[in-house]
Structure formats: C-alpha cells, structure tokens
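Inputs:
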Amino acid sequence: MMEILRLLPENMKQAVMQKIATRWSQLEEIRLRLNRPIELNFHKQIEWINEIIFTEKDSIYVLNQLSEHSLYRLEDELREGYITVTGGHRVGLAGEVTTVNGKIKQLQHITFFNIRIAREIKQIAAPFIPYIENDNRYFNSLIIGPPQTGKTTFIRDIARLIGDRENNFTPQKVGIIDERSEIAASINGVPQHNVGLRTDVMDACPKVAGLMMMIRSMSPDVLVVDEIGKEDDVNALMEAVFAGVTIICTAHGSSVEELKRRPSMRPLFENHVFDRMLILQKDTHDYFKIDIFTRDGKKITSNLVKKQ
Amino acid sequence: MKWLGAFLLISTTTYIGFDMSNRLSDRTKQIRQFILSLQMLEAEMEYSQLTLQQIFRTIGKKTSSPINNFYSRLAEHFDFVVTDFLDVWDQELDRLTTVSALKNNELEIMKQFGRNLGQHTFIQQQKHITLAIHHLQQQLDEANDQRVKYEKMMKSLGVLIGIFIVLILF
C-alpha cells in the first residue's frame, strides 16, 4: 500500500491511513477533488475525510509524485487521462482539456484524481480452466460482462494460469496485447501484475497492429486481448484466429444475444469463432456469477465466485 | 631572514593573483558546463523519456567537477521521497556556490529554471530550457570579456604588488 500512500502529502497520508486502518482489502478507490474533502470508496460504502480539504498545493504535490517530478514524460498519459503507477494501480485524471482540431491534445489544470486500487485475484479463474481447455489445447474464448464485473481480473488470471507452470498442464506461450495497460499494468514495459512465466506483453499497443505483430514475431500459442468491440478489432481477431492461434478476449455486454445484435461483432458469431463463451455477472455485493456456454449455446457450468 | 620574508610575501601575492585569474577562467568553464548540461537535459527529455532522477544521474557522469557533483547529489535526493523539489534544487545550488567560481547572476538563472523543471509538458519545458541557455550564454559572454580583460592582468598584478610591498618595506 506504500506505493499509493507515497502519492499523498504527509497530513493526508496520516489521515487516510487512520481512516482505512485495517480495511485495505476492501478499498476500491481514493478520490481527490480540488477544494473538497477526500472520498474513500470501499466495496460497500463511501466514506469521507472531512477534516482535510484537498488544496491546489496538494494537487501539485500529487501530480509531482505521480510524474516523479517529470511531467514531460507523461504526455500520452495526460492525453489518455490515466497514469499507471508501481503495483499496477491506476490514477484517473480529470481537469481542463485542451484540443487541437477537435482532437484532445492534453489535460491541463488537473483537479480531479481517482486512485483506483488494482487487485490481482490469483486463482480466481483456476476452476474454469478445464472448461476452456481440451488436450492441452485451449478453445477460442470470449468473456462477456458489464463494467466492473472483473473481466480484466479474470482474463489476467487466465493468462497467468496458461503461461505458468502452476496448473497441471504444460505451460503455453501467451501473448497479451494490452492496449489500455489494464491487464499487465506495465511500467516501462515491465508488467506490474503477475501474468505468467511464458507470457509476453505488448504494452499500450493498438489491438489491430498488436495482434499481427505478436503472431509474426513472438509465435504465441494463445493471444489475450481486452475489450474488443470496434470493427477493426474484430477483423484483426478473425485474421489471428485463422492464423491458427487461440484467442481469449473480453467484450462489454450482458449476454450472448445482446452481443450478436451488435453489427461489428456479427462476423465473429457468423463464423463461429468462439468455442466457449463465459458470461460474468454481478450477483450480490460479494459474489460474481460465471456461466460458461459452448459454441451452440449450451450451458456447461454455472458458478458463484466470491469477491475478495 | 629578510630575504625569506620577501620571498614569502611575493609568493603569497603571486598565488592570490593566479587564483583570481583562475577563478575568471573557471567561471567561463563552469557556465559552459551548465549550458552543456541543459542541452543534455533537453536531449534526454526528448529521446530517452527518462525521469529527472535518471537524467541527473547521467548528466552527473558526463560533466566535470563541480557541476557533476551538483547533479549527482540531486539524483541521490530522489532515492527518498522528494516532497519539495524546489527546496532540494535551491539547497544544492547554494551548496554549489560555495565550491564553484560561479557568480550570483548565473545561479539566479538556474534557480529560476528550477521553478519550471518537470512541471510542464515537453514543448513548454523545451522553451524554458532554451530561455535558460540563452541567459546563461549572455553570462558566458560577459564572463569571457572579463577573462580576456583581467586574466593576464591579475597574474602580473599579483607578482607586481608583491614586489612593490617588498620594495616599500626594504
């Protein structure tokens, strides 16, 4: 947790530490807004630190710590609106946007920070590996779920399990194309999360280019991609599938039927690209529901997984 | 005894004269080192995308004393959490004052430059670097003028004053 606390000025650090005490495992977000108290988001409730108002001086401090006093390095990050820090945590930024020809040039006067605590939940996908694997060969799989249901956590663990020796099968070469740096959360190309021994990560790379780059140069057995949705993504994915590589990817949505209706996704289903569909749903506060379907829509398992 | 005293006196004033003339040429050398270091800073920022700490360390290795110590020490500060970069910057500049031939003018330029270091995107940062180099260049020209004017004079003046005093005492 030090990597998060070090971002905050001394007085805030103390207050946050006191407020959180032993509940680090439940913390999801720390939100800082100029001239407002600090907000702490836990799994179930919101709490405020009212004694401390986040001042402009504090915001400069936080930004300096985020950039290691080197703001010139963060131009891309300021355009994208988030910075990844050590430990894979991500800090979302908002403020005033400057544009050139209607395109975002950069973020100025950053006044809102959202420190999102990243948590790898190891082994979460372990019970489901047998369903997407047959004779040491993995099925093309699609993980579907609405936002905040742990798709990325899930796919990260799948990548780790496939690439690691931990499971009982021979580990396979995994390639992750991490366009939004969410799966591996790399800093300077070094993954901050454990993504497996035999896993290679192409960080911050556009999916379309990354898929072919990986296939050409890194000879992966399995390619892992986050959040497909655009037509280009789908086309690139088809190319990869027919190049003989297993694809495991995620998509926003709440059911297979819903996805089938999206025009950009249609070719994937028409060509029966995916052999397995995993549907993630938020069940209650503490549980996720995971259903696994085969290519013809037959449900093969349904499970509840506890949120940690 | 008399001769020994005279010899000591003359060598002292000669030493002072040489030292003062050395300071003049050291100042130009050190300003030049500063300009060079800012150019390196700019290049590193643009091409290698390193953090300030890493850049300071590189510059510290490539410049000569006492500027290299200034940068190396700055880099060391970053091993711990730097709460106030300006504080560290100013403190190290002040320390540099005591061991270098630099004058207040160029130190003031560097202090001002520190206000903007690491606070801007690259394009803006580049402007600040160019500006600081420009100001330092002016100081360098002035320092050069002084060096040309006074360097030799200081040396001979040292010897001559020594001889002069000895003559008076005799």
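The mean pLDDT of chain B is 90. Flag for discussion at group meeting.
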